[in-house]
Design a protein that fits this description.
heterodimer; A: 298 residues; alpha/beta; Rossmann fold; four-stranded mixed β-sheet; 7 helices; B: 224 residues; mainly alpha
Chain lengths: 298, 224
């Protein structure tokens, strides 16, 4: 193959045709168009790279989303996000920029779109339109942009033990030394003595602890919490506030939905209020934290 | 590589949870056993009739048992929203399907291997002479059932009337597998066994087509 041969690798998304299984590949020479364009399974592109003299990545380079061990602060950017379920708008043109290292509280009445926004941020729900991105603190940052997410449910397996659950999710996310990481987290959340117990035997507070440990297992740079204090007693809430504070101080960007003021809301550096799927108030736009957390009440 | 390592990790989880509870295996084994015994008592077939109809009954029992077994495949991921945590954790959602369909195929095969001696005894059919070919047909048939069933289980788990939806979708789609598997099995268990390579080829192609479709579009089945 001549040195001048250019292999242009772009994702379908780049070419405005969506299918994640294929990449569109262009073969060409400098200043010579049109290229020979063909479509290959994405797994095969590394093979083609062997034959190319020059490579231009038009879309994301291969393996751009590899999990990396240490978190570097990463922000969140929602751009005109819409989410519709049939004719019902769960989110309506939400645009929000969360800076790396912020601790943001999402407030709003039931059905205002907090959970949907968090699930979009966690990439569990695909928005109907709009764009979600994770801008890193620095241009060359290699932070892990797979967020940690704690939902209403534990998101762990009841039939597995606490340790088995954490090792499972650590392995799935290519965490180095999964057993050691699981042990470290079990000690952090105070469940080390119950590591061999099945999760189904846990109390509500213990379940919340294992849920948080699962979300932290891959050392995410963004943590999303959906009403983390639900069902916790005052001791549990104090523990959660301390843990969240530690996580935030370690450089994580934290976004959580809350109802009302509490020990946990005291950690917030910013609050955003949602109503009917839209952002209606933001402390960055002059609203007070207290008024947002009390939905404008006294 | 992450597809394979994630699949292996998830397969380990599927096997561990099942062998710990034995819910699916027990239900499937008991169901197939009951169906075979009931058919045997109800029809009381002669040796010739057994050869002619026995394999069909066996495959019908496998198919009904599979529709029971595949139902909880994705349904039990919903109680704690573990499907979302898996989707967050894996780099390729196909690994979730791959692990589940390998586990389902293994469970089905294990059930079939346990049932074969009983089937031979109840229907007075010699299965040993062509056992290796019979196992090949059982493998290809079970793989087809598992691939289609796993995909439909993902669809039906998010629907209303999910308990009814899976068999309603699954049984018509698997009719070709049932017909071909039963025909090939009848030929294999005949007095003068014949290997129907066309049938075996059909099963392999069926599996390949549905596996490719799942690889291409499976990701969309997991979306909310």
């Amino acid at each position: 193959m001549p040195d001048a041969l250019i292999l242009r690798v772009g994702s379908w998304a780049h070419w405005r045709v969506a299918h994640p299984r294929f990449v569109r590949v262009g073969l060409g020479f400098p200043n010579l168009r049109p290229d020979i364009i063909f479509v290959i399974p994405s797994e095969a592109r590394n093979l083609l790279l062997l034959f190319a003299g020059t490579i231009e990545f038009l879309g994301a380079p291969p393996n751009a989303e590899k999990t990396l061990p240490s978190p570097t602060p990463t922000g969140l950017r929602f751009e005109n996000i819409d989410k519709r379920y049939g004719g019902l708008f769960a989110l309506r043109r939400v645009s929000l920029e969360i800076a790396p290292g912020e601790c943001v509280v999402l407030a709003g009445r039931n059905g205002s779109g907090k959970t949907t926004l968090l699930r979009v941020a966690a990439r569990i729900v695909r928005p109907t339109s709009g764009k979600l991105s994770f801008p890193a603190a620095t241009a060359d940052s290699t932070s892990n942009n797979r967020p940690g997410y704690v939902a209403h449910t534990t998101m762990v397996y009841d039939e597995l033990s606490a340790e088995e659950n954490l090792v499972l999710f650590a392995r799935l996310q290519n965490v180095a030394q999964p057993a050691a990481r699981a042990e470290e987290l079990l000690r952090e959340v105070g469940l080390y003595d119950r590591r061999a117990s099945l999760v189904r035997t846990f109390s509500r507070g213990m379940r919340q602890r294992i849920a948080i440990a699962r979300a932290l297992v891959h050392r995410p740079s963004v943590l999303l919490f959906d009403e983390p204090a639900t069902g916790l007693d005052p001791l549990g809430i104090s523990w959660l506030a301390k843990s969240l504070g530690d996580v935030h101080r370690s450089g994580c960007t934290v976004v959580m939905s809350l109802h009302g003021e509490s020990e946990i809301s005291a950690l917030a550096t910013r609050a955003v209020q949602l109503d009917a799927g839209s952002v209606v108030a933001d402390t960055n736009s002059g609203a007070s934290l207290h008024s947002i957390l009390t939905f404008g009440g006294a | 590589m992450s597809l394979l390592s994630n699949t292996a990790t998830l397969l380990g989880k599927e096997l561990r949870t099942e062998f710990r509870s034995r819910e699916l295996l027990t239900t499937t084994v008991v169901f197939i056993l009951v169906v075979l015994i009931l058919f045997s008592f109800a029809i009381n077939p002669t040796a010739e009739e057994s050869r002619e109809f026995g394999p069909g009954l066996l495959w019908l029992a496998i198919l009904f048992a599979a529709s029971l077994m595949l139902q909880p495949c994705f349904l039990r991921e919903q109680s704690n929203d573990t499907l979302s945590s898996l989707r967050l954790a894996v780099s390729d959602p196909f690994s979730i399907f791959l692990a589940k369909l390998i586990a389902n195929t293994l469970f089905l095969l294990l059930t079939e291997i346990l049932m074969l001696p009983l089937f031979a005894a109840f229907y007075n059919i010699a299965i040993l002479p062509e056992l290796h070919y019979l196992l090949l047909v059982l493998f290809l048939g079970s793989l087809g059932v598992s691939v289609v069933g796993t995909a439909l289980s993902a669809i039906s788990a998010q629907a209303r009337m999910r308990e009814l939806l899976l068999p309603l979708l699954l049984l018509p789609l698997l009719t070709p597998v049932l017909v071909v598997s039963a025909t090939v099995s009848v030929s294999l268990l005949d007095r003068e066994p014949v290997i129907q390579w066309k049938g075996i080829g059909f099963l392999a192609i069926f599996d390949l087509i549905f596996l490719t479709a799942l690889w291409l579009f499976g990701e969309y089945l997991l979306e909310e």
